[in-house]
Amino acid sequence: MKRNIIISISLVAVLLAMSCTERKEVKTAEPVSVVTSHTFRKAFNFIIISDWGWNGCRHQQEVADQMAKTADSIDAEFIVTCGDNFQINGVASIQDPLWMYSFENVYKGLSLQVDWYPVLGNHDYKGSTQAEIDYSKISRRWRLTDHYYTFAKKVNDSISARFIFLDTPPLVEEYHKRHEEYPDVVNQDTAKEIRWLKDVLANAKEQWILVFGHHPVYSASKKHGNTKEMIARVKPLLEKYHAQVYFCGHDHDLQHLHEKGSKVDYIVTGTGGDTRPNSSNDKSVFSGSEPAFSVVSMKGDSIRICFVGLKGNMIYRFGRIYK
User: Fold this and answer.
1) Residue 42: pLDDT band by 50, 70, 90 thresholds?
2) pTM, two decimal places
3) CA atoms within 13 A on the CB side of 99
4) CATH number of the domain within which 142 lies
5) Fewer CB near the last or first residue (10 Å), C or N of the chain?
6) CB 70 within 8 A of CB 76
7) Which residues are paired to 248 by β-bridges?
8) How many domains in the chain?
């Protein structure tokens, strides 16, 4: 019965989205510079997008089109998604038409036919999270093999990076109180996930440790803001085991936050489709809001992270050296 309701809701969402014509007016910041192949030459490059599942509407298609141009220009190795892959109620099955309307038919550029490494968001948990995992068995590029997972890749002959993908919705108490709305949350063992994360971080031998999830640790947004459970359970592990960057979405804006005395940078990149007003706090290094995605470029002992807008403009960029 519950799955039938989800299917019905998904179909309604598709029909509404197919007639979507509204576009928000967005004032784009003056470009810092334009992403070019020269800028990222001889680097290990990948793209991050979050909160993108809008059936091509709310700037999703425009962001996707620029992603394809940028991915081609920088020879992107893969794509990471930080959740809310399918608004508003996730997918009901691997046959759900939202796979075509929100993913396959939107990110159709040749340069985007690389591996996609997703995490699950709270809106994904309103549907079948298992369906998003099972889609990996029939898709050439969708690589969500489990609720949380990790792998390492070589940046060059001497430097490697550890990529860690978390399942954050079950860590948030709010969703457990609304189990009818988030049916798959109660089935997750959060203590097991935290033990797994600690073990992966403690045994990581790679020079770079990059962690991805849907919910922010820190966020200056007035919509969601900080996630107390992430601060209590995840942040101490990131700090103890020297992760350098935590990437997330959930808040539909662009943020770079840094806590005084910390070695972890916190990045919110939640404008893959919809946007909301941004705000700042005492941890804000940058705050903005426009349709965009992130480019991460690694060259040996350095990393550069850029927010890229609809015209291929760098909205913001920063870099750091491995220490």
Assistant:
1) confident
2) 0.90
3) 19
4) 3.60.21.10
5) N
6) yes
7) 268
8) 1
Domain around 198: 2-321
Instruction: Identify which of 74, 58, 46 has the alpha carbon closest to the alpha carbon of residue 20.
Output: 58
Longest C-alpha distance within the chain, in Å? 55
DSSP code of residue 99:
I
Structure tokens, 19: 């007639």
Q: Are strands 265-269 and 79-81 parallel, antiparallel or unpaired?
A: unpaired
Rounded Cα distance between 55 and 15, Å, is 10
What lies within 8 Å, CB to CB, of 97 at 6+ separation is: 10, 11, 14
CA gap 43, 193 in Å, rounded? 32
Residue corresponding to tokens 């988030």: 182
Helices and strands (DSSP H and E) totals, the chain: 8, 13
Within 75-223, residue ranges assigned H as helices are 98, 129-134, 173-176, 190-203
Tell me the mean pLDDT in the region 267-284.
97
CA–CA gap between residue 134 and residue 139 (Å, rounded): 9
- Alpha-carbon span 131 to 128, nearest angstrom: 5
Continuous segment of H or E residues that includes residue 258? strand 254-258
pLDDT of residue 40: 84
Residues 6+ apart with CB under 8 A from 222: 277, 279
β pairing state of 245-248 and 265-269: parallel
Is 317 in a helix, a strand, or coil? strand
